[in-house]
Here is the input.
Amino acid sequence: MKKLAEAYSPENFRKRGHDLVDQLADHFENTIQEKNTKVIHWSQPKDEHVFWKDYLENGNQENLFSTIIDHSIHVHNPKYIGHQVTPTLPITALTAMLSASLNNGMAVYEMGVAASAIERIVTDYICKKAGYTIASNGILTSGGTLANLTALLTARKAKATTNVWNQGSVNALGIMVSEEAHYCVDRAARIMGLGDVGIIKIPSTSNFNMDISLLNEEYEKAKSSGIEIFAIIGSAPSTSTGIYDDLEAIAEFSAKKNIWFHVDGAHGGAAIFSKTYKHTVKGIEKADSIVIDGHKMMMMPALTTALLFKDGNTSHATFSQKADYLLEESKEEDWYNIAKRTFECTKTMASIHWYTILKTYGEEIFDEYVTTLYNLGHQFAEMVVANPNFEIAVEPASNIVCFRYINDALSEKETNSLNEKIRQSLLEKGEFYIVQTKLRGIHYLRVTIMNPFTTKIHLQQLLKQILAEVN
Here is the structure.
């Protein structure tokens, strides 16, 4: 018991905890204020693997946490403008520690008394902000991928003419989604057994949003092939371009066809909190279900995602089954036994992130965050357009901007190759972190402005550094 007694020692934890909080506070200060000049210290996977393998045997355990920090990407640095990962609010480091320490699994009410009640309050609050009525409800789950899968399972249960959950696959089923939608929707559909033919990808317009004019034609084509369409998904926005689908038009179509309307708002659904940009999600209140990630545009640690249902009753039918040791039959809406409505059984106390932010800072902080970042996205696009050495793929609707370096003397193939090399060079130097994407065969550099401390000066420095790379 000697090792166990040492490992569970409150005094050891107190010392380590105080040391870690000091290290994290220094990390926040050094990254936000750019005392650390690099966003990432790039190394090849094989070299990093060798380092950590050796550290397990020979490294100083007193330096473990600081070494992990040094070898990790610094999302709080204003020059981190890459993937859709938020610089978490420092207070959520404490709520994450609280969740990890209490370890209330939340499958059934008695395993998560506080967190279950808090989750109901939080999801009711988000439902109201989305424009839903009191008939709605929601759950929190581990990420947008799982939330989108759950929403489509609910859609199938609600709209398909056969009960696949109980009877298995009898007839061909399908969904409709933009070709620009996040890959997790395609993955969810394949997990559900829809296959290639059951994923009806609607071509996008020149602005990279779903071409609404093609919906009826594609629906009838699928129907004539024997495919029963049970759902349509709107992107709010698409991951590659940050462009929103026309949610109102999709809602109108889904109503006519009596199919489920789901909105993947994992990234941009948080616009419901922005007075300035709420128009981007106009029509979202007509969706049967909505996904919004707390770890993207709401400053929370991964993973925490809200899945909202316009008719809360539908969420209780998704995973209908009996587990005598765990789940009891109930005549009332036992929202507090969360395992009945989630793919997960045990899950983290994610609700306390949302609740703590609301209690401490109020919903205004979400408005400030989304509005600040979307404003920066538009400002950066203006800077790119004003510079003859660059072009944008599409006028942005969010904080995602796709752009590229151009030179009339280069062929399209050479331009693609050059932009790819520019991105790799930036990665290896580590001062900025941006990503890349391909749109219709064209290679673009892709910026997602996630840090509210990023300024126009940082963005101008990025363009200047890119030009230095090619000169």
Remarks:
- The chain is about 45% helix and 15% strand.
- The mean pLDDT is 92.
- The longest helix spans residues 10-32.
